[in-house]
Design brief:
The complex is a heterodimer of chains A (491) and B (76).
Chain A (H helix, E strand, L loop, with lengths): L1 H20 L6 H6 L6 H12 L6 H10 L2 H32 L4 H8 L3 H33 L6 H49 L3 H11 L12 H7 L10 H8 L8 H28 L11 H9 L2 H39 L6 H25 L7 H11 L1 H9 L5 H22 L14 H19 L5 H13 L2
Helix pairs in contact in A: 1-8, 1-14, 3-8, 3-11, 3-12, 3-14, 4-5, 4-12, 5-12, 6-7, 7-8, 7-14, 7-15, 7-16, 7-18, 8-12, 8-14, 8-15, 9-12, 11-14, 14-15, 16-18, 16-19, 17-19, 18-19
Chain B lengths: L2 H17 L12 E2 L2 E2 H23 L16
Antiparallel strand pairs in B: 1-2
Helix pairs in contact in B: 1-2
Classes of the chains: A mainly alpha (491), B mainly alpha (76).
């Protein structure tokens, strides 16, 4: 039954991707950006689905199982404020510049903003390096989930392969429109199924009041923050959602908006979507601490699957698996497509075939690159250890630490190419330094102080941007005016 | 009231809300409020407040973009 539900779900996702292809206009802009035609609702769903990963369903409940209700403040409510604020301050401006100047990728914008090919290449390398682990986690996570939910009947490699094949099919076939439509469908699926799982299990546990009462008597430590989460950690963890300002896949979705007003719904509804997904996940993790006590280490991430096994019919287990697949694929598709787009536009087209590639060839290269990157990542996922999942938070940390770059690009005329290059290099160096120091330390914070490395990295990268920019020659007015002149004029 | 002061007011409110995320006074409070542990209830309500401030921002302090004033439906 579980497998049947998953197969039907994957077929539905493919169908949505195929149907969207009927609107394909055959141009590069349509394949890479859906001709900037996406309206408010699909923009919300594709942004939210892209940003939320399987961690929101499985990882969050596992974290709550270990650390209690504080996980919601740490990971959910901080995003509920910071992410839409980034959409508001950064996303709309980037959309406007992208539309006005015809950008397709993030690298194009930064290269143009500081008139530097070298910066473009540096950013491309850093962004790809930060994004690859993220892809790997999604593909490996799909295989692990299917294996767990089917009690090992389906080996991990088949689940990972299924994720890759489905994503590759609708991304290469439907481009960004197919991705946005499939994301919308999948986001609705994982939001709905998370809520259904919650209500079903809570009912089986005798209602929320009774179930929480049991936790209060047996594990009261999970109902407060206490010693489990340091106040400094809560404060500095709010830097992590700033990563949304530098994710290539989020940038790409911003550019698809039909008009600036399309951002209104995502900005307003984002905090509500966060609550809808994370409240059930965190509560189920906390209730699981009593219901399926004794899970150690990474095993805690399976708490939701185990609770469904115990309390829900097989159909719901299948639906939950579909929901997890939805969360995984709705992120993976955009990430892969953004990599394909950057490779096509920023490397192949910019450096090799600027005037010689027609639209059809651009689309072909984009499709080939998507297929290649999925194949390579799949192969790596087969041989990578489970500890690879620890890279998730480090990937977010790296992107968040680059946030001062986009902030300076949009709001500081005096910022220079040298400042931007130095900032990116400082982030890369610090990222490697903290990764090496923290890799084998659970819940690593700087010198055990509770301060997340991301906060230190942001302070350093912002300082580097300011100092190096002020120490180098100001950018030429003819370059800067293209980005600030109209803004001043409209006031 | 012109949009400038309203915008400034909303930006200040945004900063205050950001600071209020750090609810140190509820750190070890195990009471239940609205059927949930108060530390969780607070942050669920915080999400609603975040939605409210975002509503006010898009309504009264829409950013001036390079493509013209979006309030007038510019869609270049």
């Amino acid at each position: 039954m579980t497998l049947a539900v998953i197969v039907v779900y994957l077929a539905l996702v493919l169908l949505v991707g195929m149907v969207s292809h009927r609107l394909f206009r055959g141009t590069g802009e349509d394949y890479f950006l859906a001709t900037r035609s996406i309206g408010p609702f699909i923009l919300l769903m594709s942004l939210f689905g892209t940003h939320m990963t399987a961690f929101s369903l499985l990882g969050a409940s596992g974290e709550a199982y270990r650390n209690g209700i504080g996980v919601f403040a740490l990971m959910a409510s901080s995003s509920a404020l910071v992410v839409p604020a980034v959409f508001y301050f950064v996303g709309i401006r980037l959309w406007s510049l992208g539309k006005q100047r015809g950008y397709i990728t993030q690298v194009q914008f930064f290269r143009d903003r500081w008139a530097s090919d070298g910066l473009g290449v540096l950013l491309f390398v850093v962004l790809v390096m930060l994004l690859i682990p993220y892809l790997l986690i999604g593909i490996k996570g799909g295989g692990l989930t299917l294996s767990r939910i089917t009690d090992g009947q389906v080996p991990e490699w088949i689940g990972s392969l299924a994720v890759c094949v489905v994503v590759m099919t609708y991304v290469t076939y439907g481009g960004l429109r197919g991705t946005a439509w499939a994301n919308t469908f999948q986001t609705l699926v994982f939001m709905t199924l998370g809520a259904v799982s919650f209500f079903w299990i809570v009912r089986e546990l005798g209602g929320l009041e009774a179930a929480l009462g049991r936790v209060a008597s047996e594990r009261p430590d999970l109902l407060v923050r206490g010693e489990r989460i340091a106040p400094l950690k809560l404060l500095t963890y709010t830097c992590i959602p700033l990563s949304v300002g530098m994710f290539p896949h989020i940038f790409m979705h911003w550019l698809t908006a039909k008009r600036a007003e399309s951002f209104r719904v995502p900005i307003v509804a984002y905090p509500l979507c966060v609550a809808v997904v994370w409240i059930p996940s965190v509560l189920l993790g906390v209730l699981g601490s009593v219901d399926v006590a004794g899970l150690k280490g990474p095993e805690a991430s399976s708490v939701l699957v185990r609770m469904i096994d115990s309390h829900a019919p097989e159909l719901l287990a299948g639906l939950l698996a579909a929901g997890v697949f939805a969360a995984i694929m709705s992120s993976l598709d955009s990430q892969v497509l953004s990599l394909g787009t950057m490779f096509t536009q920023d490397i192949v087209r910019h450096f090799g075939f600027h005037d010689r590639m027609n639209e059809r060839e651009q689309i072909l290269v984009g499709r080939l690159f998507v297929a290649t990157i999925l194949f390579l990542t799949y192969v790596i996922s087969l041989v990578s250890p489970s500890s690879i999942f620890k890279l998730g938070i480090w990937s977010f940390t790296g992107f968040a630490a680059l946030f001062p770059v986009v902030l300076a690009a949009l709001f500081w005329r005096r910022s220079t190419k040298a400042g931007a290059v130095a900032t990116v290099i400082s982030v890369a160096v610090l990222w490697i330094y903290f990764l090496v120091r923290g890799w084998n330390v659970a819940d690593y914070t700087v010198a055990g102080s509770g301060i997340m490395p991301v906060a230190v990295m942001i302070v350093v990268s912002a300082t580097v941007m300011v100092l190096v920019s002020l120490a180098t020659r100001p950018p030429a007015p003819c370059v800067v005016d293209r980005f600030f002149r109209s803004s001043k004029g409209s006031r | 009231m012109s949009r400038g002061p309203v915008r400034a007011l909303l930006y200040v409110a945004l900063i205050l809300i950001f600071l209020l995320h750090n609810d140190l006074w509820l750190w070890d409070d195990g009471r239940f409020v609205l059927g949930l542990p108060v530390g969780l209830t607070y942050h669920v309500l915080y999400c609603l407040v975040a939605a409210l401030i975002m509503t006010l921002l898009v309504r009264f302090a829409w950013p001036e973009t390079l493509g013209g004033d979006p309030d007038r439906g510019s869609d270049r």
